[in-house]
Amino acid sequence: MTDSLRRLAAYDRALYRTVARLSTPLLDEPLRRVSDFANFSKPWLIVGSALALLGGSRGRRAAVAGLTAVGATSLVVNQPLKKTTGVRRRPDRSGLGVPEQRWVRMPSSGSFPSGHSASAAAFAVAVGEFLPVLRSPLRVAASVVAFSRVYTGVHYPSDVLVGATVGALFGRLAARLALRRWPPPAE
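The chain above was modelled as a monomer; its predicted structure follows.
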């Protein structure tokens, strides 16, 4: 490992420890629930289904773009990326000071990058391109999911940052392809 990578890993652990030391017991239960609820992209499947059922043709197009982005992102992040980046071990929550009351089940897959963060960002970016009124709320929701993964101790901050970046790129790509297929009506 080069000096630069060692230094980045040290910053990553330091930021992880900083989050672990936050004295925010009121957030423990809500962020644990958010982290668990985001398993298998449940929030994005629910919102996508609601958009498809209730959002008219524009909502259906947004749902297709968002769920396509989630699917493509999940496939790439959870298969080749996690396998080719050299399986990064999950953080040692107890050794790095994450209080047990925050813990969720520790995934068995590698830590890098965060699939939860990738899927959340992919959906938020893709749907936000079709429905600008949802752009901010979905990005806030995606950020909460991403932060919850560090807060509960299952990811380092860089896992979440890279996951969100990959997801945002796939979200943008899915939206562009969908917009090319279904251009917005002329006003």
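The helical segments are 3-20, 25-37, 42-54, 56-84, 93-96, 115-130, 132-151, 157-181.
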